[in-house]
Amino acid sequence: MVAIHKKKHSLTLEEFLEFPETKPYCEYINGGIEEKSMPKGEHSIIQTNLVAYINQLGKQNKTFLALTELRCTFGGSSIVPDIAVFEWSRLPKTQNGRIANNFTIYPDWIIEILSPEQSTNKVMKKILFCIKQGTKLGWLIDSEDESVMIFKPDQLPEIKSENEILPVLKYIQDWGLSVSEIFNWLNIE
Q1: Quick one: CA dihedral 41, 71, 99, 138, positive or negative?
Q2: CATH 3.40.718.10 for domain 38-184
Q3: Mapped to the 3 state alphabet, what secondary structure does 93-126 carry?
Q4: Most exposed residue of 16, 180, 184, 188, measured as fewest CB within 10 angstroms of its CB?
Q5: Integer Cα distance of 5 and 26 in angstroms
Q6: Contacts of 122 (CB under 8 A, 6+ apart)
Q7: pLDDT per residue over 71-97, tens digit each?
Q8: How many angstroms separate the most distant Cα atoms in the chain?
Q9: Is the pTM of this model over 0.85?
Q10: How many helices (H) and strands (E) would you count in the chain?
Q11: Which of 49, 124, 59, 57 is nearest to 83 (CA)?
């Protein structure tokens, strides 16, 4: 981490990728390095349950796969979305059919969960960067506001709340998750 910060302003993407991974993760966006916030309780519960919910639908018929904290390098940047969802046919694979370690493609759907100390605009910039690169859907989950901001190509963002059903990629079947259901996961009693 220290070495990265010393070279922060003169690092290329290739140089950045040569450094070992750090915790918290660092991202290379628009020529600069930004440190991700470490997930806390609410963030972690939402992320864990949402990935399980998405994968329950997508893995059974091999249509899509949701992955957490996966480094995705594309478009001159290297980001680590909270959740990256890929169409099954686009998943990078090794020659023997295993999932690849390096993802040099954009996710089809990016989900970010806002942490209290995070800048909303920085997270929105990351989602918009992905949309410009080909991502079809972005969510920004805000637990303080109990809302989800939706991003789609060539459309203004929209905000969903309460019992509104969240939009998903067109090939996802049997979807019915509402905003309130996501925030109900925070109640552990």
Answers
A1: positive
A2: no
A3: ECCCCCECCCECCCCCEEEEEECCCCCHHHHHHH
A4: 188
A5: 10
A6: 34
A7: 999 999 999 999 999 999 999 999 999
A8: 50
A9: yes
A10: 5, 10
A11: 49
